[in-house]
């Protein structure tokens, strides 16, 4: 038995360490801003104001956050079963196909409250199906799920180009996209709800899907820590041999977990498509699937952490857009850099600061360690 | 049916399109043989392309650009090594981070420095690698068969193309005939055996990862200052992932890597004339997207074990910790 | 031997801590040149750590190492090799898809290119083969070699590196008695050539058979160094555990009842199609402990796994409480548990426990679907914790905190967590593998008593252990396994030599002829 890493008090481990890691990422990002000759503090100010400065801005932030909650939960759920699903991007993309089919079929003669639930269902089914093949290949044929999900992102991309160009694009349209949906496939915006109370809040696309995301987070929590299947997922994730001993089917856990993960990723498309642009266009996922990796790592795969991390990334995306508008030198690519640094510090380098805090919080373990 | 000229141009493009994949694939081979998986190779190549574009523009020298490209690849590799070897971090996560870091940094810096939507300025011909004649190409030009193949197909590419193809036998020789190669293969299979033989696992793995950076650096330079005349955002366009797929296809063997990369390069080259063409006899139009996706589909089929079995280095993906 | 020569190896005041664990305390040890020196101690006594320090794999916190009278600075394994120390590790340090030759030259290639070094190594291998009966084909892949030959490659590795002092860490754990005898002949021969050998083991028999001197380790300390000839197994055993131990477990005669478990013609094959369990038949009755003796790796693990439903058999029948189960079709641990088959696995770290889990979560592993822990698909942490608390009290698990991470419990207490889980659900049959491996002596006694108590309560118990003493003192009947077959059944008080021959695959009748 080897314990390479320093033990820390619980609150430091789950509270302070993630904050320190994320802070390190932001610090480096600030250096990049400095490097291109802008003021990091000024940039931060514009960013925060752009994300939270008005109800409209906040609703934009929530719109992005909604997508990231879904993709973050998708990655987090898989992590608990020891699976690294890098395919959220493709699953969300294909999920959008399901949404498109439902919307195209029903938007002209059904109200949104019939279309939207069916679209939610379709996005989950399509996302899950796209995750199912890599899951099956891992569970039955031993192919590494990281590699297959990456491959499936590319395959999804090609397939969607084909479908959008050859199948769904109306003859009159220019770009590869579906026809614009009609109001029967519009999920009401949060702004519309506020309008009912006479509060003017602008046209930001945050929509009721946000509450679906929060509900999904709560259900994921319930699943992982309050169900027998969640127990099986965690057992399998920590120790597949012990799982086999306990009669937990690796096949079942891998398949079900990936189906759930793919379904969550698929849900992201409802937010963007029915809440935002009201059509399916080329590459509408725009990296949200990958943001999910950063969100899950930063949130330590805990649904509450995922929600908080998704809000932070929502702020980054909305504030970053505002920032690039006001300070053109800091383009939206800055967000990618921050995302990368968060993944780096909260993921690959998560133990870098441990020895330091180990010294700081050095304490005798009262409980005896295992036999040497 | 495709006529000879089209076939010829497809074969010619195959060589050009194979080059960056092959370089990354061989680089990945060194890294993965040492036990460090590297899905960040895409990002390394992209960052190297940017560095090469910037340096070649600033200096006016292709060689200076190449040097900068290699330097960029090595710096990112060192970061990957620090995270995965020194800090024993998750190799996949580190690779993902590097890909985003490269995508973000290149676009941000490019836009901030040149205000051309992320592109670096167009290079003078002297700042690029130029086509070169192989010795005797002119002499055999009119010899049937040999002439067109040697003069038309093999000759007339730039230096980096030849570097990439010569790197294949070189890599084979290094991996299977040298002390370094033996140790590299051993450390990817059983690092404890290497450690107890008195060899530093850390140094070997860093060597593998840094060599990978050199190759990714050359690949990136090729994209920006040999194949094109400037850097443009996301110009690596998934080739790093294709290279990883090729590496699996090659079963981590340099000769196999050449075959797999040529196949994938050919498929990429084929997509150009096949646009809108139909298969004779059936009349069915091959969707060009199917060809684009075929390397990934083939790799998935291979990974599923339907055509042979790809067994990765046994200790790959796992940080080495001394057991007690 | 010549007393004038300075000791081949001398350790002075070696001290090493791993966090809170004091693995080596002020070790002083002198090994004379040209002798075989044994180091004996229980699992976890600190033997392997000490040898890893000598071999440069770990650094001592303090103390020094002297070789042939001179202080040696061993910082890396390379230093140790250069100083003439060779080591044969318990888990072989071989690259499995390399040839023998490639493994031999790894680290001593003799130049940046392989060609010259390979040719030289080939010659040297031939010399060594002639000198020491160490024949092995240099071009075979390690993964194609049987374990005994792999070990030979390890010894050859050390010798080609010019080792004068050879350390062997538990070398016989994976060998049959015949292979072990062959190894001992080789060691004797090496000694005759003037090499010095350190033999690390926890088996008294080996110490008595081959060593000149022996040092006993206990809890990180060397408690005695004696001449083997002037010592006795009883004395050494007492030194090892620190007090006189009753190797006999107090138990009354068994009162076997009806047949509970019957196994007929069970066969289990591994992924390469080799029969690991070969046509095995036996039965266990209520109220008796049937022990399975054998050298590790002769199919005991696979037998347990097949009975527990973890591994699929290719043929045979399992009859449990009169119900016939086809293990080729119905291999499913969950179903076997439902039928009353409890299983304490051989390897608790990898199989029996999820170390990052809280204690209470491990207390339900395998039984987590029971409605007692939550309705339908749900799991109720309160109910799980309540259940865990009851078991903690009953099995005296310490510390008595069911929210603590399992990794933070000692080996003995971890084993108690597993035992409590498997014993407390009133199973019909208990399968037990290596119940006291890596467990301190106090916990061993507790565990043995629990097993006897369970037997006396009328349960059927199948016990697998590589510790022959444990098998003999607990079992009512002993089956001996060799190469996947049951090669004999003896009473626990049978002659040890007879059991030993069976374990080696030699039928007693043949041996007598």
Overall number of strands of chain C: 20
Helix content of chain C: 25-40%
Helix content of chain A: over 70%
- Globally, the shape of chain A reads globular
Q: Quote the distance from N terminus to C terminus of chain A.
A: 7 Å
Main sheet specs of chain C: 6 strands, mixed
User: Low-confidence runs of chain A (pLDDT<50, min 5 residues)?
Assistant: 364-372
Global morphology of chain C: globular
Mean of pLDDT of chain A: 90
- The secondary-structure class of chain C comes to alpha/beta
State the oligomer. heterotrimer
Instruction: Give me the secondary-structure category of chain A.
Output: mainly alpha
Proportion of strand residues of chain A? under 5%
Number of beta-strand segments of chain A: 0
Radius of gyration of chain A equals 22 Å
Mind summarizing the main beta sheet of chain A?
Answer: none
Element-level helix/strand string of chain A: HHHHHHHHHHHHHHH
Termini of chain C, distance in Å?
39 Å
Radius of gyration of CA atoms of chain C, rounded to a whole number: 25 Å
Largest binding interface between chains: A-B, 53 and 49 residues
What does this molecule look like?
The complex is a heterotrimer of chains A (about 375), B (about 325) and C (about 525). Chain A is mainly alpha-helical. Helix content of chain A is about 70%, strand content about 0%. Chain A contains 15 helices and no strands. Chain A has helices spanning about 10-35, 40-50, 55-80, 90-105, 110-140, 145-170, 190-195, 210-225, 230-240, 240-245, 250-275, 290-300, 305-325, 335-350, 355-360. In chain A, helix 1 (about 10-35) runs antiparallel to helix 14 and helix 3 (about 55-80) crosses helix 13. Chain A is globular. Chain A starts with 9 loop residues before the first helix and ends in a 12-residue tail after the last helix. The relative contact order of chain A is 0.21. Chain B is an all-alpha fold. In chain B, about 65% of the residues lie in helices and about 0% in strands. In chain B, helix 2 packs antiparallel against helix 3 (about 60-85), helix 3 packs antiparallel against helix 4 and helix 6 runs antiparallel to helix 11 (about 255-275). Chain B is globular and about 65 Å long. The termini of chain B are far apart. Helices cover about 35% and strands about 25% of the residues of chain C. Chain C contains 18 helices and 20 strands. Chain C has a six-stranded mixed β-sheet with strand order 6-7-8-3-9-10, sandwiched between helices. In chain C, strand 19 and strand 20 (about 485-490) form a beta hairpin. Chain C is globular and about 70 Å long. At the B-C interface, helix 7 and helix 8 of B face helix 1, helix 2, helix 3 and helix 4 of C.
